[in-house]
Amino acid sequence: MFRKLRLLRAVSAVDFGAPSHRTVPRRFKQGIQEEPEEGRLNLNFQIEPNYLYYSRVNPTEAVHIDLDDFDFVLSNNIDALLPTYTIAHGFLEGGGQTWIKRLVKELLIRENCNIIVVDWHGGSDPPYSQAVANIRVVGTITAHLLADLARHTGEQRLKHVHCIGHSLGAHLSGYIGYALEKDFNLRLGRITGLDPAEPHFARAQAPVRLDHTAADYVDVIHTDASAFIRGGFGIVEKIGHVDYYPNGGSSQPGCDRAVAQHISGSGSFFRGIRKFLGCNHIRSYNYFIESINSKCPFTSIACNSYEDLKSGTCFECGKNGQHCLKFGYHGRELYDHLIKTKEISPHKNLVQYLITGSDEPFCRAHYRITVDISNSTESKRHGGEVGQFVFKIHSTRDGKGPHSGEVILNEGGYHGPDLQYRAVVSGHLVSHLKTVDIEWRYRSSVINPLTWRLMRSPRIYVAKVQIEAMETRQSITVCPKNEEILSEALPQKMMSSYCP
């Protein structure tokens, strides 16, 4: 009782004067009674959060943490020294979301830990501006809860606490960090922002929004980072120690599918509609959840732009400041190593890019493919073609082992004699580069004379192909057998032994 009164009095002092947060939290001011009624605090406090505790002892059935409990750690027999996570949902959501259950499951598979789900569904309803104001209150209450945890952690304090939040929940996690430092001189170990919300937070500064100052390590995954007026929900700015921009950060592969495909793939009309409307936004937590226990490397690379990665200008890990980190959950390990070895400054923000697949599992390997078109007399006489190359990279010479799946290069582009084409594409991880199947797919168009083939069949003359793998740092150069012509829709095997 007295603990809850202390918490509510503490958050009543929260400053809501910042331009983006002038809305007072719903029913907050009138919701606190200074004196308890009949031995218990009577709350008319609609946004009061619920705290759901999970561990390996109770992996699926949550224990509700009582805010009236003066020492919830002892009452619930919590090992305060274990790695501890908080998970905060976003707008229009609650603590029982399917993605939160998946995240809890993967974290508990990964390690023996404490997980506290911050369920603030009472304050996440419309209007959006009200929910934006409400997360400050919830963040402050959660900070007080974690401060009580810190009473049992000794010198470790809260270095082992990792707050994970999606959309508004990302900024809520930032408020936890700010309140801990301001009120208790405590510092969070890590915050992961999963596509932090953009409306009301764009171009704002800390402590209005999540920022790298909110914890020792702040990593941010941007998946819907385009302006809100263009339909984006996520923030564009670089705000963490490490900012990941999968597929450029704004348009995720597979999210351009029709609504019927999303409904069919989700197995539910309502889940399908939600996935259709917010596909890019929700990819952030799908990617992060997969990264926890994936055997796939999930490699990201620091580049000046996504275009530099796609063109192959930025590809080699460790060269010219192109630092590679594991994406998502495991990213901090190598980041800390780079800091320790002074390869990067702790004040430097890393901007990481990677390419994913369009379906789960999303993790892909990166291949830089360079195609040299022949300069032979026959190639020049035939001229250029419009189409695309389709590769399948094999780990065995006979092509019967694991392979990359179809990898498409220069879709719909023009390919002329004696020219070179290079791009970075994604495919399934291949442990050893042995052989390559290559296919030419011709694209004709009635409005493009370059694609008209009235008297001759579509074909392309390839001299050689170089394939480099980012993850395994392998490289292979392959050639067609006996300089064979690559005809439309007729796959051809290329090997190193065929090269002159």
UniProtKB/TrEMBL annotation:
This is Lipase domain-containing protein. It comes from the Eukaryota. It comes from Photinus pyralis. Ca(2+) binds at R209, D211. InterPro entries: AB_hydrolase_fold, Lipase, Lipase_LIPH, Lipase_N, TAG_lipase. Keywords: Calcium, Metal-binding, Secreted. The lineage of its organism: Eukaryota, Metazoa, Ecdysozoa, Arthropoda, Hexapoda. Belongs to the AB hydrolase superfamily. Lipase family. The active site is at S167 (nucleophile), D195 (charge relay system), H281 (charge relay system).
